[in-house]
Design brief:
By secondary structure, the protein is of the alpha/beta class. It has helices spanning about 20-35, 50-55, 75-90, 100-115, 225-235, 245-250, 280-285, 315-330, and strands spanning about 5-10, 10-15, 15, 40-45, 60-65, 95-100, 120, 125, 135-140, 145-150, 155-160, 180, 215, 240-245, 270-275, 290-295, 310. The strands form 4 sheets. It has a 7-stranded parallel sheet with strand order 7-11-6-1-4-5-12, sandwiched between helices. A 5-stranded parallel sheet has the order 14-13-15-16-17.
Length: about 325
């Protein structure tokens, strides 16, 4: 591996990779090329060599694999220790981590141990061609502007990136790359927290980051009962329901459904925005969607600036008409 290597941490859970790790290999490859270095996937887990092979198929030049029972499920002490040891040994230039719940725990812990900086919840990444610094862009000041942050004096440069910000690249089973196995284990007495039982809550089943079709409602839905028609449309399309921050703040849907800067970042094939004005904090969470359909009574609503299809009208009339059309087409 070259000195200017860029690492992507591939989070695993019970032997399976979280999608965001593979997603980050896409910008990772472009950034590594700009650096003139290699793209390396870093995997911790138990029986996860298949994840390392998949990472190479998605574009990694090499993979570093650390396996052990203590890595079967994420553990703050074990995972941060292992990643810290790897970074000290190989000294990568940049480390990218998915901004999952675990990634948001791991990144700051490792950055603190290494006395380096970390930019959290990024929605854009680039390299300054003159300095080689990582340019990490994220929403700031309540989502009212975008800030680009650099870490010029310390290494590695670290950023966490929201799931759904980038799309997975082409899976090429024929790609080859070196898999380096490292034997790293932490003293069991230094693991302060143990997982006793996994309880799958309802919120864990709301996987908006993986949804291909999302029907999202905002303040224009007027009351929580009206989200019933959005569920009906989502069910008819085989999609999921989501909401803007205004709808969540009003108590119409739980926070697990929120899309935006303070919610989830999504990139479905189809995003239908119903009664959502399009504040920047919402747009940064869904602008990566392949096709955006916006319904709003205000012809000057900001959401129309990024929408592929614009419907100026009352959602209470438009959505039922859409439901009828979808059901008729199915029949």
């Amino acid at each position: 591996m070259q000195t200017k290597s860029l690492w992507v941490y591939i989070e695993t859970e019970e032997g399976n990779a979280k999608s965001v790790g593979y997603e980050l290999l896409t910008p990772g490859k472009a950034l590594a090329n700009k650096l003139g270095g290699s793209l390396v996937a870093v995997i911790l887990g138990e029986n996860v060599e298949k994840v390392a092979k998949n990472a190479i198929a998605y574009g990694a030049d090499a993979a570093i694999l650390v396996e052990g029972e203590e890595y079967r499920n994420y553990n703050s002490d074990a995972s941060s220790y292992a990643v810290n040891e790897l970074i000290k040994k190989y000294q990568p230039e940049i480390v990218l981590i998915g901004a999952t719940k675990n990634g948001r725990d791991l990144g700051p812990r490792v950055a603190c141990k290494l006395s380096t900086g970390l930019t959290a919840d990024c929605t854009g990444l680039d390299i300054d061609s003159e300095t080689g610094n990582l340019l990490s862009t994220r929403p700031a000041f309540g989502g009212n502007l975008m800030a680009t942050i650099i870490c010029p004096d310390n290494r590695p440069q670290m950023s966490t990136v929201r799931p759904g910000t980038f799309k997975k690249g082409t899976f090429d089973e024929g790609r080859t790359g070196e898999i380096i196995k490292e034997n790293i284990h932490i003293d069991p007495e230094k693991i302060r927290v143990s997982l006793l039982e996994r309880v799958k809550e309802v919120t864990e089943q709301i996987n908006l980051e993986e949804a291909e079709i999302i029907v999202s409602g905002g303040r224009g839905m007027k009351k929580p009962e009206n989200f019933g028609m959005l569920r009906e449309l989502a069910d008819a399309l085989g999609g999921s329901v989501a909401a803007s921050r205004a709808a969540v703040d009003a108590g119409w849907l739980p926070s697990a459904y929120q899309v935006g800067q303070t919610g989830k970042t999504v990139a479905p094939k189809l995003y239908i925005a119903c009664g959502i004005s399009g504040a920047l904090q919402h747009i940064v969470g869904m602008s990566g969607s392949d096709t955006i359909v916006a319904i709003n009574t205000d012809p000057n609503a900001p959401i129309f600036k990024i929408a592929d299809y614009r419907i100026v009208g009352d959602v209470m009339e438009v959505v039922p008409a859409m439901i009828k059309a979808v059901k008729e087409k199915k029949n």
